[in-house]
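Quick one:
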Amino acid sequence: MLIQKRSFCFLTLILVSQLIFSQSYDPVANPQSVVRSGNARFTILTDHVIRMEYSNDCTFTDQATLTFVNRNLPAPSFTTSEASGWLTIKTQYCTLKYKSTGSFNENNLIVEYRDQRHKFIWRPGMTDTLNLKGATRTLDGAHGKYNDDGSPGVILEDGMLSRSGWTLIDDSERPLFDNSDWAWVQARKGGSVQDLYFFGYGSDYKAALFDFTQIAGKISLPPKFAFGVWYSRYWAYTEAQFKEIAAEYQRNNIPLDVLVIDMDWHLTGKSSPEIFMKYVPRPDGWTGFTWEKKYFPDYREFLAWTDTQRLQTCMNLHPASGVQQHEEAYPAFAKAMGMNPTGHKRIKFDIINKKFAQNYFDVLLHPYEKAGVDFWWLDWQQWGGTKIKGVNPTFYLNYVHFSDMQREGKRPLIFHRWGGLGNHRYEIGFSGDYKISWEGLDYQPEFTATGANVGFGYWSHDIGGHWGGSIEEKKDAELFTRWVEWGAFSPIFRTHATNDPEIDRRIYKYPEPNLKAMRKALQDRYALLPYIYSMARYAYDSAISIVHPMYYEYPDLNQCYHQEHQYYFGNDLIISPISRPMNGFEKISQAVWLPEGNWYDFRDGKMISGGKEVTGYYTLDEVPIYVRAGSIIPTQTPKLRITGSVLDTLILTVYSSDAGASFKLYEDEGNNENYRKDICSFTQFNYQKADGAVNFKIQPDGKTFPSQVTERCYEIRIIASDKPAQVKMNGKAIDWNYDDKTGMTLIKTPKEKIEELIIEVKM
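Output:
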């Protein structure tokens, strides 16, 4: 007998999910999507995704798990039927068949998938040997894809995508979120339960990722400043030295937005040996919450200074040792925990204890945040479990920090290690203590792009490498320059290194040719901020991370699976960083495979036909970048800070094709959660050729947000253009220039209110 019903629904679950996840996530499925058969329940979440549950006592869960937080989606079209004891559920792509003879196994459950290009059958117990992998908790100690003996240097977890065309997520033992006002973890009840999610997508990887983020939560949008330059180094800097570093960046015309303040900002106490980091012992411990006055005599004054400089501050935390007796806040914390503050007993770190977590924020961290600390580096290194089975302490610490910032009304930003599937909701990732080497740099693009397969698209790496290497490698200016150039076209830019006087990450300390190359790369990054931030919003909407593999765009083309060193940077750029030494030559060759169609060399605007591998020759200050024909790339004038900058002049470079060109620009306040409520704006740019003329349309959506500019001028650069005869804007002639050598038309508009503009160019 078939029964369609909703198991249970608590209004409080809906309300709590909205509070905790800051958007309308609802873990209770649409009742029209649920099919019951005996002790099994099937939820048809999308045309591609079916949740499959079996319970001996018919007890199913409608609570969010640590992985899946939203099941209330519009019911897709599907049919159900029953014949010879077999239940059949058929969607557009998937046909599920189940015979109610007990828990799911290869004899009573089958899913057939079919689309125009793919057809296969899945059964329980099948092994996916073609998974395209995802992320890993850390790159600590790694120096490339392979070790010197040829063994894998990094082991990646399975991701959401596979050339098999399907992915199965077993959520059976994943803990749950409760329905309290601050959703909290709880263990699943005992008993024989299967809770499986089948994703069938063939090679439509984008659909798979979109569906995943519909039920596992969207890829959060970081604050705008996070896309700027972060300066970080494990070094006992004083506040005076930080001020000097900021001044030197400005004097050398190098952008800077974030100061990362590592371990030595705080006092440390003696810690028990079991919590030491195994490969870098620190006898005085790693945990601390009390400012070290010999470095920061008045931390409030220092944090006030960073605010006046429009610099954001990120403070390092290793909280695993708990709250020790030497901390200034120890008496208040002990009292809040109901302990004797004169007992001088270390209070163990217990992040799944809600009382501990609340006091951890209220007593230890919130006062510093009110003084000006902007976000925390959760440099968690210890332990792999908690008192609740299945609760990874890294994952849960990330959730607790992220959701606390939401509760405080901020746009959350944490800097942390990967904690497992579902962690894409809590950005940004810290990839760990990578070794200094050319091999290490060479693996960075592949590792970063692969993280997109689990939605973890905002990796922040130790640019330059963290430790290890020979003296020559530590001081290799060319190696560091190429790291910086890669970092400039990665999701998040942060230089870093260990506490080693032989390593320096201050860009202005390098020889002039290297300084110029690195400064150029960072200025290019800041110029591209309108493009980068728009692609970050696109990642939120589509689940396609800024840096993603070539096979996303051409999944049925085998060659795309062998281009590990190049990647898409947004929808329109292909980048292949240089990761080999020049060996004294003025230029180095780099081969890049370009898909079918026309592409433009970012350096000189020359058009190149794709469908083949092309080789270019690059100087120290050049990076292989190719632009898709049909693109409009928005950029801005030079900036040294993102925070406080105003986009009142927008440069639009048109890389045209016969089909035209387009781009959708995204803008918001950059520092709060209003983007989830669509308090933001989009502006559509379209370029079309017709009858010996071109039309360029600027079409704002009319939406507004606080701090939005009301007037703007545009600089339109049309690459590979014929020479115009006349240019008009909304019917009135305006000035233009044409460069005969480059074939570029330049049109500058006067400052106008942000409203629709039509620019007509007659040839």
